[in-house]
Design goal:
Layout (H helix, E strand, L loop, with lengths): L7 H30 L2 E6 L5 E7 L6 E5 L10 H4 L7 E5 L16 H15 L4 E6 L1 H12 L4 E7 L8 H10 L8 H9 L8 H12 L3 H13 L12 E6 L7 H10 L3 E6 L6 H4 L1 H13 L2
Parallel strand pairs: 3-4, 3-5, 5-6, 6-7, 7-8
Antiparallel strand pairs: 1-2, 2-4
Helix pairs in contact: 3-4, 5-8, 6-7
Length: 300
């Protein structure tokens, strides 16, 4: 069989066509990659009566991860963790009611009510099942979610947590907060937030954390901590999801004995201790936390 001979101008035309196709395919791939790693922001009105602001990252259709921040924080609390998350995970980080850019109703801040907000968010977005990650205040909310609708919590991660917020450290903080008025002094907020960490944290990050906290008026500080202390605790024995407990051994709010109580109360739980780390591993060791979180999610 004789070879097909093409004219030089035809060869040149074909070369241009294939090169264009390659560039278009490459650009589309890069756009998908950029979209998956980019943090996207939105708001949603829930049937619980509040509008929540949230951040979103990762591939739509990937395993869903819901992240819940601590007292006076916002989505930004997880921003360093998000940088180390594989884009295959579809991550949502909520500004819980009263915090960040979400609504600030006068009341309704018990962990149970905040859990109802998260479940309403899952319903509104169309999330059937998720890994739920909670830090500090967010961990108490996560515990309630796992007891209210356990079939929807594939895995549970509790960071800087305890069976209850009702201890001497939080009660002491409440006494200080009850003396606040607007605007909440920058020094008070800095002492509060910097006092939570042991590992060094970048100045620009902690400065933004402080700025996020100062957006909350004094009345919300007081209402949230009151409801945190007076709201019902979750029944740990009802938590059936595999649970990872992350605790820094430099923690001064929730101590080791409280981690042991979590372990004994949650049947499928394990503890991972971060040495020389304080109350906020999400800030102090974000790369390690993201790695441990992803390994835990992927484990069969």
């Amino acid at each position: 069989m004789s070879r097909l001979k093409l004219k030089p101008e035809v060869i040149a035309s074909l070369a241009v066509m294939f090169a264009t196709m390659f560039v278009q395919t490459s650009n589309a791939s890069n756009m998908c990659s950029t979209e998956a790693t980019r943090i996207r922001f939105s708001n949603i009105q829930l049937n619980t009566g509040v509008r929540l602001h949230y951040a979103e990252q990762g591939e739509r259709g990937g395993p869903v991860v819901l992240m819940l921040h601590g007292f006076t924080d916002s989505w930004f609390s997880y921003s360093r963790v998000l940088k180390s998350m594989d884009p295959k995970y579809h991550v949502y980080v909520l500004d819980q009611r009263g915090h960040g850019d979400s609504d600030q109703p006068r009341n309704g801040y018990t962990p149970r009510v905040l859990a109802d907000d998260v479940l309403a968010f899952m319903n509104a977005i169309g999330i059937n099942e998720a890994t739920v990650v909670g830090h500090s205040m967010g961990s108490f909310v996560a515990q309630h979610i796992a007891t209210l609708e356990p079939e929807r919590v594939k895995k549970l991660v509790l960071i800087g947590s305890a069976p209850s917020a009702k201890n001497s450290a939080v009660l002491g903080l409440q006494r200080d907060i009850n003396a606040l008025s607007d605007s909440v002094p920058e020094k008070f907020v800095r002492d509060f937030q910097v006092g939570m960490v042991v590992q060094p944290v970048p100045d620009d990050f902690i400065n933004q954390v402080i700025a996020e906290s100062r957006r909350m008026p004094a009345r919300i500080w007081k209402e949230v901590i009151k409801d945190l202390l007076t709201g019902a605790d979750a029944e740990l024995t009802k938590i059936k999801s595999p649970t990872l407990i992350i605790w820094g051994d430099g923690e001064t709010v929730f101590l080791r004995k409280e981690q042991d109580a979590l372990l004994s109360g949650i049947s499928k739980s394990e503890l991972r201790v971060y040495e020389q780390t304080g109350h906020s591993p999400t800030w102090e060791l974000p790369e390690r936390l993201a790695r441990d979180l992803q390994q835990f999610i992927d484990r069969e």
